[in-house]
Amino acid sequence: MVEEVVSMAMPDEDPNTMRALRALENEDQSVRLRAALAVGTNPDPRFVDKLIERCAIEPEFLVRDMLTWALTRHSSAMTVPQLIGELRSPRAQARSQALHTLSKVGDRQAWPAITRELLTDADDEVARAAWRAAVVLVPEGEESGLAAVLVTQLGRGGREAQLSLSRALVALGEAITPVLQTAKTDPEPRVRRHAIATEGLLLDPDAGFEYAIEEAKRIVALGTNG
After folding, report:
1. What angle do CA 134, 174, 136 make, to 5 degrees?
2. pTM for the full predicted model
3. Which ranges constitute the DSSP H helices of the chain?
4. How far is CA 159 from CA 23, 94, 184, in A?
5. Are 220 and 195 contacting, i.e. CB atoms less than 8 angstroms apart?
6. Cβ-contact 118, 130 below 8 angstroms
7. Statement: residue 3 has pLDDT above 50
């Protein structure tokens, strides 16, 4: 059925193009990986739709990463509007992978599409991808506004989610200092710990997140933000 749709949409395609499109759907992960590499090596606008479609459903991380790379090899004028469209998908993977790809493309025209809704998405993978994309795409002068939204997510999730958020905040630099000061007085200990750990990373990036979070736990347990 898929092959019939592709054939109807592009009846004049050469056999190599058709083989590549079919290979992106092959059951063998290694075949899909090689196909994505080949498509990125020889970019062609006719592949963009299929690459984005596969990003939304591809189960293997390595293949998804290659699909993203292949998309970055195509014109952003073609890929960015379609990736923005994926941000409204009900499928979490479609949203997270589109955000990840937008962060790699780095076209700031996508910034208005990085909404508060995405930055606070209930799905941790979507939210993490939104945080990373936001700090890449945020226009100069809007860092404080972004920091104010990101800080509302302090204390969220497990170690990976918290580390991702801390890294995103630290990437904004001194713009995060005022909001962290407020978060350090939050009534929720988990939020205070995360705020203190993030501040520790900002002041000493070489300290590492594990050290920063353990130090933050100690500070909160002692009942001081000093």
Report:
1. 20
2. 0.85
3. 2-9, 15-23, 29-41, 48-57, 61-72, 76-86, 92-105, 116-119, 124-137, 143-150, 159-171, 177-183, 189-203, 209-222
4. 37, 23, 19
5. no
6. yes
7. no
